Amino acid sequence: MSEYMQTYQVKRVLTHNEGLKSFRFDRVIEAAPGQFVLVWLPGADEKPFALSGVFDHEIEITVKAVGPFTKQFMNVKAGDWVGLRGPFGNGFQPIEGMVLVGGGIGNAPLRYLAQCLREEKLLFRWVIGVKTAEDLAFRDELASMPEVTIVSEDSSIGKKGRAVDVLAAMNDHEPIIVLAASGPEPMLLAVHGFANTFSPDIPVQLSFERYMKCAVGICGQCCLDGTGLRVCVEGPVLSGHQLQGVTEWGRPHRGPSGRRPTQKQAVHHD
Amino acid sequence: MINRLHVDLAGIELASPLVLASGVMGLSASSLERVAELGAGAVTAKSCGLEERKGHPCPAILPFGFGLLNAVGLANPGVDEMVAELRAFRLLSDVPVIASIFGKTVEEFPEVAARIAEARPAMIEVNVSCPNVAGEFGQPFSSDPALVGEITRLVRARVSDIPISIKLSLQCLSLAQIAKACADNGADAITAINSVGPGMIIDPNVRRPVLANRMGGLSGPAILPLAVRAVWEIAAAVSLPIIGTGGVETAEDVVQMVLAGATAVGVGTAVYTRGLEVFSTINSDLHVFMQERGITSLSDLKGAAHV
Question: Prior bond to B57 cis, omega within 30?
Answer without folding.
Answer: no
